Amino acid sequence: MNDTQVFNVVAIGHLIMLSMWGGVVATEAVVEIYPFKKREFAEATSAFHYWIDLLVELPLVLAVIATGIGLVYLSDQITRLHIVKIGFGSLAIGVNLFCIAVVLRRDRRRLAGAPSGQLRKASLMVLVCFAVGLLCAAAAAVLGFSLGLTRVG
Ligand code: HEM
């Protein structure tokens, strides 16, 4: 395999991991809206989201970071546009990691007997993180695709 083929394989891996991550985040957003419709769902939402974050989302985020770093390493040159793209991607990841920390802490509070009102407050924070993260991820995706198109020519 030559360098271009290796780059393309890693870029496809980057896209697959990003798509799976996006699907998980969209599903989590649906789950997090439920406590605002029915109070009694606050506990179940907290427990479900905890395990989804630990078993599914965290590994996917790490895979996005790994493939992104792989692409940086395999790139012939890193332009300013690359740096802006990586900046938005890293911001989206940073917001997501913060969100995971909120979710893990919320579930510890649930186990300690926190009232559902407190759990719903954390749900609101999670939804705000989704909105901010989505904006940063959308910017990274647009820049990523335009870099890809420029590279292909
Ligand atoms: C939300 C996070 C991210 C999104 C939405 C995103 C999106 C994308 C997309 C759509 C591409 C184009 C892939 C292709 O050409 O087939 C791409 C390429 C790339 N990504 Fe990401 N990415 C993210 C995070 C990261 C991170 C954290 C890094 C670095 C650590 C990174 C580094 C790169 C590099 C170097 C390329 C290759 C650009 C080129 O074609 O020259 N990405 N990304």
Report on this model:
The protein is built from four helices and no strands. It has 153 residues and is an all-alpha fold. The two termini are 21 Å apart.
Concise structural overview:
With 153 residues, the chain is mainly α. The chain has helices at 3-37, 42-74, 80-111, 116-152.
Chart the SSEs and their pairings:
Elements: H1 3-37, H2 42-74, H3 80-111, H4 116-152
- Uncertain regions: pLDDT < 50 for 5+ in a row? none
Bound molecules: protoporphyrin IX containing FE
Number of contiguous helices: 4
Described by strand count, sense and barrel closure, the largest sheet is: none
Helix-strand category? mainly alpha
Q: How does the overall form come out from the CA principal axes?
A: elongated
The percent range for helix content is over 70%
Beta fraction? under 5%
Helix-strand sequence: HHHH
Number of DSSP-assigned strands: 0
Mean pLDDT: 95
Number of domains: 1
Radius of gyration: 18 Å
CA(first)-CA(last) distance: 21 Å
